[in-house]
TrEMBL record:
Entry-linked Gene3D superfamilies: Glucose Permease (Domain IIA) (2.70.70.10)
Entry-linked CDD domains: M23_peptidase
Pfam families for the chain: Peptidase_M23 (PF01551)
Keywords from the UniProt entry: Hydrolase
Name assigned to this protein: M23 family metallopeptidase
Low complexity: bias regions: 274-283
Annotated InterPro entries: Cell_wall_metabolism_enzyme, Dup_hybrid_motif, M23ase_b-sheet_dom
GO molecular function: hydrolase activity
Chain spans, region Disordered: 268-294
């Protein structure tokens, strides 16, 4: 039911866009007719949201899994600060988190570019997170895996922000696949699924049906879908299809759930993560969280 309502809502918005384009080209369509698909789209989205709230499990205990990254990272849009963490429960992301790779003090290389006015866009190689390895958070089975979408330039600047927001609206019309970009879904058992989003094109190390072990390399961090810069969007959910999934709480072993702006370090070996909870430096040493990051 929820998936049908979501698809109906998208179809109605597409009908409205088609109606608008025809009216602009001909000037002969009644203006009132455009409100019919708008009303149907809003009603479908509201019904889908109500169905989704009914299916949520607010009393679910957080599941402890391994961190999906190694090295030094910082958190954005964290469920430690608010739920839903991204301002919406769509696509099962009520408890989702975004993490970006950072260059720690004394480490080689320039810091992660911060959000600012110039340049409007950067190549992905300017960000330390691009191509970073991503690991399986637990033993599981790959149920969804796609990496054919291209990695686009960054949008982490004020001039690019309007483009990012408009692009996000258009991507949403074409479904979750365009929003989350290249992605991977692991079945962790017990009705729990892990989603990795915005993966680098061609970086998947697994395919549907593969069994993976905790800590195994599964993909690499990229900048696909509705993304302002290379980063990992991670979440647990109760269904393998984001359109109908509800988000589930999680915690990372040795890290917990880092709040937005918090830096944490996960060693590359099997040692427990360290330095969780270290406040982020000022913007000059990594920058503030870019608005609109997903």
């Amino acid at each position: 039911m929820r998936r049908t309502l979501v698809r109906l809502g998208r179809a109605c918005w597409l009908v409205f866009l088609a109606y608008l384009l025809i009216d602009l080209a001909t000037g002969r369509l009644p203006w009132l007719g455009g409100w019919l698909p708008i009303g149907a789209a809003l009603a479908s989205q509201l019904a889908a949201a109500l169905v989704g709230r009914r299916d949520e499990r607010p009393d679910a205990a957080p599941r402890t899994v391994r961190p999906p990254v190694t090295g030094t990272w910082s958190a954005l849009n964290s469920p430690a600060d608010r739920v839903p963490s991204h301002g919406t429960r769509a696509y099962g992301q009520s408890h989702a988190i975004d993490v970006v790779a950072e260059v720690g003090p004394g480490a080689p290389g320039p810091p992660r570019p911060g959000f600012g006015w110039w340049p409007p866009a950067r190549r992905n190689a300017a960000f330390p997170g691009f191509d970073a390895p991503l690991r399986a958070v637990a033993d599981g089975v790959v149920v969804r895996a796609t990496d054919r979408q291209r990695d686009h330039l960054s949008r982490n600047s004020w001039p690019a922000l309007p483009y990012l927001l408009a692009e996000g609206v258009l991507r949403d019309l074409f479904g979750a696949r365009r929003v989350i970009g290249n992605h991977l879904v692991l079945d962790l058992g017990g009705g729990t699924y892990a989603l990795y989003a915005h993966l680098r094109r061609g970086s998947l190390a697994v395919r549907p049906g593969d069994r993976v072990r905790a800590g195994q390399l599964v993909a690499r961090c990229g900048n696909t879908g509705n993304s302002s810069e290379p980063h990992l969007h991670f979440q647990l959910m109760d269904h393998p299809v984001p359109d109908v999934a509800s988000g589930l709480p999680f915690r990372w072993a040795g890290v917990g759930v880092p709040a937005a702006g918090t830096w944490f370090t996960v060693p590359a070996d099997d040692a427990e993560p360290a330095d969780a909870g270290t406040p982020a430096p000022e913007a000059g040493a990594g920058g503030e969280a870019p608005p609109g990051q997903r």
